[in-house]
Amino acid sequence: MTSDPNAEEGFTLLEMVCIIAIIAMLAAVLLPNLSRNTSRPRLEAYAVEAASLLKADRTAAIRQRVQVATQIDAGGRALRSGSTGHILRIPDDVAVNAILPNRCNDRPAFSTISFFPTGMSCGGTVTLSRLSTSYEIRVNWLTGGVEIVPRNTL
Q1: How far is it, in rounded angstroms, from Cα 69 to Cα 59?
Q2: Domain CATH code at residue 125
Q3: Phi–psi pair at 69, nearest 5 degrees
Q4: Which among 71, 70, 88 has a CA at the least distance from the CA of 128?
Q5: Sign of CA dihedral 131, 125, 145, 78
Q6: What is the mean pLDDT of residues 79-96?
Q7: Which residue has the higher pLDDT, 27 or 149?
Q8: How many domains does the chain have?
Q9: In this structure, is residue 70 part of a structural domain?
Q10: pLDDT computed for residue 1 by the predictor
Q11: 10 Å Cβ neighbour count for 82?
Q12: Which of 55, 57, 49, 103 is nearest to 77 (CA)?
């Protein structure tokens, strides 16, 4: 094999365009299949948002001097504000568990955490979990205070 001394080595523009087109096609096929699972920081953000919703309902109960009930739909992975109607939806890959009272103020509580004009509540705990990480959003029945407690189950 003889080589031509005048020939240049390298890639032509057409070859480069073909390579870029192949990479673009691979990206178009593979990117939608990347993991869309909830990350640990995003799980924490959902816990903070849930706690904020509960705190806002407590504040609304005190300011408006009425009872406000936050609806907790653990099976549907959603929390609904009793004061604004805002719905917080939790992704499918996050487990939602709720420990709620059966009765509140001598009435069935159903799936709610109620806040009273005094700031007190019936209490309850909502847990958001994914893999080995979970966050408990606790509502104190006596003070109505809301706190987030991280739990790692490794």
Answers
A1: 12
A2: 3.55.40.10
A3: -115, 125
A4: 88
A5: positive
A6: 94
A7: 149
A8: 1
A9: yes
A10: 52
A11: 22
A12: 49
Q: Is 77 helix (H, G, I), strand (E, B) or coil?
A: coil
The average confidence (pLDDT) of the chain is 88
**Listed residue (104, 127, 105) closest to 50, CA to CA:** 127
**Cα 99 to Cα 61: distance, rounded to the nearest angstrom:** 22
Identify the residue with better confidence: 10 or 96.
96
pLDDT at 42: 92
Q: Is residue 148 part of a domain?
A: yes
Query: What tens digit of pLDDT does each residue of 113-128 get?
Result: 999 999 999 999 999 9
CA distances from 9 to 6, 13, 15, 20, 21 (A): 10, 13, 13, 20, 22
**Closest Cα partner for 118 from 153, 148, 144, 84?**
144
Measuring CA to CA, which residue among 91, 99, 87 is closest to residue 149? Answer: 99
Domain annotation covers residue 142 = yes
CA distances from 34 to 18, 40, 45 (A): 24, 17, 21
Tens of pLDDT, residues 132-143: 899 999 999 999
